[in-house]
Amino acid sequence: MGGGSVKDVKSKQELDGLVQSGAPVVLHFWASWCEASKHMDEVFSHLSTDFPHAHFLRVEAEEQPEISEAYAVSAVPFFVFAKDGKIADKLEGADPSSLANKVAKVAGSVNPGEPAAPASLGMAAGATILETIKELAKENGSSQEKIGASDTLKKRLQQLIESNPIMLFMKGNPEEPKCGFSQKVVDILKEEKVKFGSFDILSDNEVREGLKKFSNWPTFPQLYCKGELLGGCDIAISMHESGELKEVFRDHGIDTFDSAGAKVTEAGSGKGGTSAATGLSSTLTSRLESLIHSSPVMLFMKGKPEEPKCGFSRKVVDILAQEKVEFQTFDILSDEEVRQGLKVHSNWSSYPQLYIKGELIGGSDIVLEMQKSGELKNVLAENGIVQKDTLEDRLKKLISSSPVMLFMKGTPDAPKCGFSSKVVNALTEDGVSFGSFDILTDEEVRQGLKVFSNWPTFPQLYYKGELIGGSDIILELKNNGELKATLTE
User: Fold this and answer.
1) If you average pLDDT over residues 145-162, what whole number do you get?
2) Which domain holds residue 78?
């Protein structure tokens, strides 16, 4: 690519091709509304002349959501540096000298043997541009951090997201969308015959930038249902086409309306295409019963705990993790018979569904309310469901299980290593009674304790919950006649 020039990226395929070619690639994610982007773009253009062997590419972050999402862009200006087919570095914010340094690293310096950045930067940007950027950095230096930190903004975003059961953050408004992606999602919501609120992110830069970080989703539009992010344009299209969007809306009590604004269906009245009157077959009923009772805490959800397939399921998984209880799950997306049958059996039209000891507790809204009020903790306790210990809880209990506690290889009668044997002898000779734990019998304790105590080897000796040390320290205390005194203070 001779002469150095900046090229606008038109598609992800084109970009992937250039990156995979192995040549140095520098990407500038920018936005037309962002002043810092414009100034950095001038520096970027000059650098492209200084480094003619690299590809300098510009990506309009919001017009290319697929590319922005692939590179996890959450704010502009944002730079990505690739070399040898791999991402070598990233840079967020308006920082000309860092940009020049990082470009030099992937593209080689202007003159071999010379430090690239200062020279290159002098050529790259006239003094006025540099001054402007310094001013900008002063004004906006922390703006990207502020987005993450400001509680007032977080509250405002939360209120906006929850201001309507279905909420669309878009460019423009439903009557006059300002981008094709927003237009598509508006059309989908109209086809789904649901009422929705919208917010024009072009009218408020604080909301626009803040929401990207808040939702960890870098592009617009963003579609929310009952406060949970469903996704952007692509996800809305695929959920609409598969019929899942209709189901999510129905499951969350969203009514549908005809063009004249009259209510068509009462949400939740459709029982998944099976009417309770026909009843379920006895085989299915007994299968559902045995699934519901297969664990004291049983969650029917979309996806798996490590990979929930909807925000509502994720919320309940998070709550159960916070309550520290063991639970089993069933992925209703994997079994249509269970998915439809359980709606009828439980007379509950949506997922997730949480059961405790065979009794239906409810869906995500109810579980969240119960957690906030402390009622969930009570129900779990009443049913004898105790918190499972975390590894840290377990280690603390083990360490404190005896005033003097030795974690060793083997047992005091049959130590499995010389160091452990020496410590056992030292304690026995000094008449110190101690508890012990064989770390060879439990890999979780063995690895966990190294991290917990920040001590990489065994044996480890504790007194009243505090680490005394390993074999060297114990033998030194013994030789100095201080061991017994240390362990009986």
Assistant:
1) 75
2) 6-140
